[in-house]
Amino acid sequence: MNSLRKADLKALIAAAVLFAIIYGLLQADVIGAFWELNLVLIGINIILATSLNMINGYTGQFSIGHAGFLAVGAYVGAIMTVKLGFNMVAALLAGTAAAGLLGFLVGLPTLRLNGDYLAIATLGLGEIIRICILNIDYVGGAAGLMGIPRLTSFPLVFWIMVAILFFIKNFKNSAHGRACLAIRENEIAADTMGIDTTKYKVMAFTLGAAFAGTAGVLFSHYFFIAHPASFTFMRSFDILTMVVLGGLGSMTGSVMGAVVLTFISAALADFPQWRMIIYSLTMIILMLYRPQGLFGSKELSLQMFQSLKIGGKKK
Amino acid sequence: MTGTNNTASQHLLDMQNVSIVFGGLRAVSNVNLYIDKGELIGLIGPNGAGKTTAFNMITGVYVPTEGDIYFDGKLVNGKKSYQVTKMGMARTFQNIRLFSELSVIDNVKIAMNMHIRYNLPEAILRVKKYFTQEAEVTKRALDLLKLFHLEQHADDMAKNLPYGAQRRLEIARALATEPKLLLLDEPAAGMNPQETKELMEMIRWIRDNFHIAILLIEHDMGLVMGVCERIYVLEYGFCIASGTPEEIKHNKRVIKAYLGGEAS
Amino acid sequence: MDSGFMHQFVQQLINGVSLGSIYALIALGYTMIYGILKLINFAHGDVYMLGAYIGFFCTSMLKLSFLPSILVAMAGTALAGMIIERVAYRPMRNAPRIAILITAIGVSFFLENAMILFASPQPRTFPAVFTATVYHFGALVINSQQIVILVSAIVLMIALTYIVNYTKIGKAMRAVSFDADAARLMGINIDFVISMTFALGSALAGAGGVLVGIYYNSIEPLMGMVPGIKAFVAAVLGGIGIIPGAMMGGIILGVVEALVSGFLSSTFRDAAAFAILIIILLYKPQGLLGKNVREKV
Fold it and tell me: Rounded distance, CA C153 to CA C134, Å?
């Protein structure tokens, strides 16, 4: 019990150190504007990938409509600040709550479906959300919602990301998280162990959607604009790819997947024609040689490093 | 539907005139079956007699087309599997259904989920209640694993256990839900005679140690005759006989069903 | 007023059926590949795009007429389909299904961006291979492109039905999709059958690409994305893995889209397709022609 708290503390200190280093480099202008933007993007993508991992990786419910919830968060947050004059905290809360509520409402009927059917239904839902936004003149329709103040900063993204990662980690290591894992492993057996499978599926889906909403608020308040074209199913695929690349069911894997893919994408920004080709080939080759993802379903932890060190010393 | 006894049943489990129809096929017809507290009952019959279907109706996987099932005086019909489990029934599966990519201890902990009393915010914020309850669940899970000689495998993945150990884990997991009635679906399937003999002893031990009733499905007559106090025999969905092992052994219809149906 | 509505309705029906028959051609490939590999081949829409470009190349550069162009496009996409299967999917046959799905998405990105690289992202004007004749039936309008599309689609579907039901390879395909392991034990060369399934499915998509080029006169590298997803919707609508289901789903989807854009707004057209999908999935998830299978406990 104490060891668990100690591990949490260690992780928090590690996060603070990482933050101090990056923030210092940003302040000293060692990291320029381009990479600052990509650091923010990495933070947002980490939130998206780990929250999708709650649905796809932990609970085994194949959702590919995450961009829809991202869009809801982006727009609701922007409405709060641009149209209604609220501050960023209110925007974050509203965007998160709206995406979560929508996740709950669509999750309740659709999560009865399984496998590919759920996948294609969530894909459709994501597209319906986008097309509806496209047709609402209040939020700018196809032109997008412009004039959003830049209220997102690197520190804000970083610490919200850390908070969400803690949330997801604690969720996985609770009775609720175990119920979700049980559903992934064998839904019928989970049911006969007294687990209300619908309840937990909807719970994971709602939480995942809510965090995507948080990411959306951060996203639209960094890039000044919320545009329907940013939330197509291609964006959902992008997030899914991060999750699978890192290893489905591994939170640290999702983090790495988000970092690696955002980094590749940014590093290739100077070669626009080749960028997507190299990106897609990386995807194919990684899947061919490591179909379980970089980490499998394992979590990267300090113990793993320690065992590596000990192994190294023995040699 | 006439003649259905609607008064709450005195028995622990009471199936009253239960039938189920799948697209014209009557898989189970007018079956009456009861189990009292602490009894060890067998349900036997040749392959395809409707034993597992009966099981699935009791545990809420299927809803009977006709008739009522009562457990602990409450109607089971239409209840979902997880609700039935919460009423106090637990089961194992003919084809093992473990949470194979999870650790052995997590398999058991999951079955204890419904006794956990912290809510989601408490779990996320890790209040004291979370730690005390988690510690208690872990301890109880380990105790249970010890009883089934699985404690040394607690952190192994369930799929890496040998076959016999997987069967034991499935039973341990079912017991972790703290049932009043344990339903075992062909627990001896795939076991050799020595393992079957040990299993028989284990089943009797579970009943005495946990003070619960057990309903056992088998098509292996020997196993059932050895441990059960009363036996029901199904054939083509009908209950053709019921009684003590001695009575069943000498029942002409049972002999015909077994020797005429499948010579084994 | 009333006859005006009827006229508009029938006109949209005609437009919908011709658009729907293209969806059906793409959906057939989806459904066949899903039936045999249980893979949502996201790259299928891009194979259709490839067909359109090959058709464009044949008609505008080689000055071929319609029939040879569509045949070359079909052959080309068939080959492309077989190569994709051989290179990207076959090594992953035992990998987790989600990994194969990601590979399919990767292949899709690759095809789209390779085409952007080689043919530029600009839309190309598809040459008119037919003198556009417009036929008037009373107040109704049907143009020659629509007739060509409809006739080609029907011919291709009849051919496919014949191949699947009456030829040796068709029987093998059905056997593999029913139970791959049993088929292998019966001496069927699974790899060959899967390869042929990709060839057939891709050829149909390629034909669809040429037809769409003729219909809209314009093609571009990302043209496969949305029709690809919609064709999958059509396949699910009819019952995935079921060949007549894909044809039916495609036509229904085309008609509904035409009616929505005719009577409501064309911007809601895509939403309508997905809304139907979700309604179908919730009430009859196995699709219109599918059978209900439940997991044995």
Answer: 20
User: What's the token pair of residue C203?
Assistant: 């050829």
Helix A175-185 × helix A197-220 angle, to 10°: 110
Residue spans of alpha helices (H) in chain B: 51-58, 81-87, 104-111, 120-125, 128-147, 163-175, 193-210, 221-227, 245-249, 252-256
* Block residue for tokens 């409809």: C150
B56 vs C contacts (CB less than 8 Å): 297
CB contact under 8 A, B123 and A170: yes
Residue B102 dihedral angles phi and psi, to the nearest 5°? -110, 165
CATH number, domain B13-88+179-261, options 3.40.50.300, 3.90.1150.10, 3.40.309.10, 3.40.50.150: 3.40.50.300
Contact between A240 and A66 under an 8 Å Cβ cutoff? The reply is: yes
Chain A contact for B120 (CB, 8 A cutoff): yes
Residue B168: both structure tokens together: 């034991």
Can you read off the two tokens belonging to residue C282? 């919730």
Distance between CA atoms of B160 and B103, rounded to whole angstroms?
A: 9
Q: Does B52 touch chain C (CB under 8 A)?
A: yes
Q: How far is CA B204 from the centre of its chain?
A: 14
Q: Which residue spans of chain B are classified as CATH 3.40.50.300?
A: 13-88+179-261
Instruction: Decide if B56 touches C, using CB distance below 8 A.
Output: yes
- Nearest-CA distance from C161 to chain B in Å? 30
Tell me how far CA of residue A126 lies from CA of A106, A205, B116, in angstroms: 10, 14, 35
Structure tokens at B239: 């209950």
Average pLDDT, chain C: 88
Number of CB pairs < 8 Å for B and C?
4
pLDDT at C156: 93
Question: Confidence class of residue B3 from pLDDT cuts 50, 70 and 90?
Answer: very low
Angle at A71 between CA A69 and CA A72, to 5 degrees: 65
**Which chains share 3+ C-beta pairs under 8 angstroms with C?**
A, B
Cα A313 off chain centre by:
37
pLDDT at A310: 47
CB atoms within 10 A of CB A110: 23
CA distance C283 to chain B (A): 20
Find the range with the poorest average confidence among A27-36, B13-22, B250-259, C242-251: B250-259
Inspect the interface and report whether the beta carbons of A248 and C100 lie closer than 8 Å. no
Q: Cα separation of C123 and C120, whole Å?
A: 8
**For C183, what's the count of Cα atoms within 13 Å in the CB-facing half-sphere?**
20
Supply A282's token pair.
């990386």
Q: How far apart are CA A259 and CA A249, in angstroms?
A: 17
Q: What amino acid is encoded at C198 in this protein?
A: F
Cα separation, A56 vs C260, in Å, equals 34
Asked if residue B263 has pLDDT above 50, the reply is no
**Angle separating helix axes C190-216 and C66-84, nearest 10 degrees:** 140
Name residue B181's beta-bridge partners.
Answer: B89, B213
* Tokens of residue C42, six digits: 């996201």
What averages of pLDDT result for each successive group of 10 residues across chain A (315 residues)?
Answer: 77 93 91 91 97 95 93 97 94 97 93 82 90 90 92 95 96 96 94 94 97 97 94 90 89 94 88 83 86 79 54 39
Neighboring chain A residues of C98 at a CB cutoff of 8 Å? 56, 62, 244, 248
* Cβ-based contacts of B52 with chain C (< 8 Å): 297
Touching partners of A (3+ C-beta pairs < 8 Å):
B, C
- CB-CB: which of C40, C106, C267 is closest to A287? C106
Closest approach of A267 to chain B, Cα-based (Å): 36
C30 dihedral zone (left: phi>0; alpha: psi -120 to 50; beta):
alpha
pLDDT for C265 beyond 80: no
The two beta strands, B238-243 and C140-143, are unpaired
- What pairing do the DSSP bridges indicate for beta strands C218-219 and B89-91? unpaired
